[in-house]
Amino acid sequence: MRKGRRLKPGDTVGLLSVSNPVDPREREACVQAVEALGFRTVCGESLFGGRGYLAATDEIRARDVNRMFSDSAIDGIFCVRGGEGANRLPELIDLEVVRANPKVFLGYSDVTVLHLMFGGTGELCTFYGPMPHTEFRKSTFPGYVRDHLLRALTSPEPGGEILPPPGDPPLRALRPGRAEGPLVGGCLSLISALMGTPWEMDTKGKVLIFEDVDEEPYKYDRWLCQLRSAGKLDACVAVVVGQCTNAEPRHPERSLTLEEVFQDLLGPLKVPVLLGVPFGHGARKATYPLGARALVDGDEGRFYLTESGVS
């Protein structure tokens, strides 16, 4: 896997949106939040304007990605927010440019589309973590979220054990065992959306990590059944379940709980399975180097990042 150079104070970060638009006032707040971390910023065209629920036309959003990877003056790329629309872009992105210019690429949620594309056919380590519009400006950003982000993006040392934020419950093991492998995954609905495409997730020998938001248990049931039928659950060496937020069923009297779905579909696996890892749409989460190695300890209920995502 190709790795970008670690970021350092004074480096230039390109800001763009591959998904939803950003209000002009929020754009300036995002710039200030990134600069408060010690970086310079360059804004892409995708942060000016909008087209319905899209930040810009497909061509403009993809051009931002291609330009920022090819521009040697830009040291890292932060997706400002998620939303919808990233799945329109893969055919318009120049993967040869991405491969030839590895650099830090950060985002989560809808950005899963590009994580799977860059980590698969692009062979690039990328970062699944907080974004300027969504987290940097919140009161929950300083401390746990900020510290994990900066460590992941600026240190060539592995992140080590991922402990829950102070006051949160411990990680839980659904299946015992120990396994190590490269991280792959993201937002479960987007993982499903790429099945059958050239950017379909490859889980062979890897640690599958997933999360989602605002979805009922039957959706998780559907997506996990799809992954099981496609052999993705049998191929991975471990499964890590992140923050599945706002997953309560509208009609609980005729629904399984999310815990029951996981018991039914992940419980029979022959690999370690962890639940409750601070990964995803929750207010407090760590930053994860997709493509780098991690260790899952289902005997002790612990999770470790054993390889850095930067050089």
Question: What does this 3D model show about the protein?
Answer:
By secondary structure, the chain is of the alpha/beta class. 29% of the residues lie in helices and 21% in strands. The protein has ten helices and 14 strands. The chain has helices at residues 24-35, 58-70, 95-100, 112-119, 132-136, 141-154, 188-193, 217-229, 232-235, 258-265; strands spanning 12-16, 40-43, 76-79, 104-107, 126-128, 160-161, 172-175, 178-187, 207-213, 238-245, 273-275, 288-290, 293-297, 302-305. The protein has an eight-stranded mixed beta sheet with strand order 6-14-13-8-9-10-11-7. Strands 2-1-3-4-5-12 form a six-stranded mixed beta sheet, sandwiched between helices. Strand 4, helix 4 (112-119) and strand 5 form a beta-alpha-beta unit. The N and C termini lie close together (11 Å). The mean pLDDT is 97.
One letter per element, helices H and strands E, the order comes to EHEHEHEHEHHEEEHEHHEHEEEE
Helix coverage percent: 25-40%
Strand order across the largest sheet: 6-14-13-8-9-10-11-7
Instruction: List low-confidence stretches.
Output: none
Radius of gyration over alpha carbons?
Answer: 18 Å
The average pLDDT score comes to 97
The DSSP helix count reads 10
> What is the assembly state of the chains in this entry?
single chain
Q: What's the shape?
A: globular
Q: Note the main sheet.
A: 8 strands, mixed
Class from helix and strand fractions: alpha/beta
Rounded to the nearest angstrom, the distance between the terminal CA atoms is: 11 Å
Tell me the β content: 15-25%
Number of strands: 14
